[in-house]
């Protein structure tokens, strides 16, 4: 059996087999969020091809994901950088040769770290733009013909209730809605991603391809939040006038998030299942924010946290540049 139990990556509302006969191609598929998205789709009947830079990590994730359903076929293709179009195209070709099609695509590969503009070299900014924005463009270019073919072959809704085909999701973020300090690179890159998906929705909707964005907020237990959440980022203790600790919310999580808790990979997997399912047959060019309302309170903070060390603009005036720069104050 896989290391993860179904309730950890999927809510109990979906029907078994709703993606039977469909293949999903996922960049960044070994990562915390995208592996949960893939696991959920495979659990519900899909086969999958996951792409990553690290060979061992990607292949191991594929083997683990395949364990969620007897007979599942999951290929892990490592040594593929979304910045390199040729390697991505080869991976897409291999996916179709081995699994028969590409019906769904998740552009999930991303790069991020904490740095102010002062701490960013031109190459650092470019690296994130290249991975997120150009990587998403490359993913679209390498797979769009397959998606058109799938959308043509699997028109939905249909009388037989067969699963749809030709669906695209980009995993984005919410930084650019308000602006977030120390995230200029990721915010610019994800704004580009959202914009690209709008164009896909417009240009390929007439071919039956539905293209949407999922924008996660802070997700607990992910590499991204480990990176963005140093110095106790996101922790919050609320006390009454006698210094007694109050429960931050009915759900026991962060009071800085309106829903009262951090996101989970399951939240994002559920959103993915919805957008690829027949329930979302006419959802195109949409941004589905899955963050408990967190972005409505972000901006001054680094993100959703209320850590005093990250209060705006004190940490900037104190000279914070990047966790990587030896001379910068630690974030
Ligand atoms: N602060 C400031 N600059 C940084 C940095 C940091 N924390 N980390 C990397 N950089 C800079 C590097 O110094 C380099 O710039 P330079 O050539 O001017 O010195 C530039 O970014 C590229 O770094 P490099 O490590 O050569 O690039 P890479 O392609 O191997 O890695 C990154 C890309 C930087 C995005 C890296 O963080 C990465 O691979 N991340 C993938 C995983 C990830 O980010 N997951 C979280 C998703 S939310």
UniProtKB/TrEMBL annotation:
Keyword terms, alphabetized: NADP, Oxidoreductase
Enzyme category, top tier: oxidoreductase
Domain of life: Eukaryota
InterPro entries according to UniProt: DECR2-like, NAD(P)-bd_dom_sf, SDR_fam
Record keyword Oxidoreductase present: yes
Reactions catalysed: a (2E,4E)-dienoyl-CoA + NADPH + H(+) = a 4,5-saturated-(3E)-enoyl-CoA + NADP(+); a (2E,4Z)-dienoyl-CoA + NADPH + H(+) = a 4,5-saturated-(3E)-enoyl-CoA + NADP(+)
Pfam families: adh_short_C2
GO MF term list: 2,4-dienoyl-CoA reductase (NADPH) activity
Enzyme nomenclature, EC number: 1.3.1.124
CDD domains for this protein: TER_DECR_SDR_a
PANTHER family to which the protein is assigned, alphabetical: PEROXISOMAL 2,4-DIENOYL-COA REDUCTASE, PEROXISOMAL 2,4-DIENOYL-COA REDUCTASE [(3E)-ENOYL-COA-PRODUCING]
Annotated protein name in UniProt: 2,4-dienoyl-CoA reductase [(3E)-enoyl-CoA-producing]
Organism: Sporothrix epigloea
């Amino acid at each position: 059996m896989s290391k993860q139990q179904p309730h950890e990556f999927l809510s109990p509302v979906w029907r078994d087999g709703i993606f039977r006969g469909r293949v999903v191609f996922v960049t960044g598929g070994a990562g915390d969020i995208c592996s949960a998205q893939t696991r959920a789709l495979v659990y519900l009947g899909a086969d999958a091809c996951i792409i990553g830079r690290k060979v061992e990590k990607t292949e191991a994730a594929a083997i683990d994901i395949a364990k969620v359903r007897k007979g599942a076929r999951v290929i892990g293709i490592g040594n593929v950088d979304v910045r390199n179009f040729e390697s991505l195209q080869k991976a897409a070709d291999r996916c179709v040769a081995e699994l028969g099609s590409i019906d769904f695509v998740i552009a999930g590969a991303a790069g991020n770290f904490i740095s102010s503009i002062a701490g960013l070299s031109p190459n650092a900014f470019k690296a994130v733009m290249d991975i997120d924005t150009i990587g998403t463009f490359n993913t679209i270019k390498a797979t769009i013909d397959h998606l058109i073919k799938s959308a043509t072959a699997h028109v939905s809704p249909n009388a037989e209730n067969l699963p749809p085909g030709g669906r695209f999701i980009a995993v984005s973020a919410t930084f650019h809605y308000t602006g977030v300090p120390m995230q200029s690179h990721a915010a610019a890159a994800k704004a580009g991603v959202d914009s690209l998906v709008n164009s896909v929705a417009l240009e390929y909707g007439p071919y039956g391809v539905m293209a949407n964005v999922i924008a996660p907020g802070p997700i607990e237990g992910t590499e991204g939040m480990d990176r963005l959440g140093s110095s106790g980022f996101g922790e919050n203790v609320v006390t009454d006038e006698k210094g007694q600790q109050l429960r931050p919310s009915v759900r026991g999580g962060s009071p800085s998030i309106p829903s009262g808790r951090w996101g989970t990979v399951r939240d994002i997997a559920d959103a993915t299942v919805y957008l690829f399912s027949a329930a979302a047959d006419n959802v195109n060019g949409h941004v589905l924010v899955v963050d408990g309302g967190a972005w409505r309170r972000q901006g001054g903070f680094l993100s959703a946290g209320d850590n005093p060390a990250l209060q705006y603009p004190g940490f900037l005036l104190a000279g914070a540049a990047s966790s990587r720069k030896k001379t910068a104050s630690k974030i």
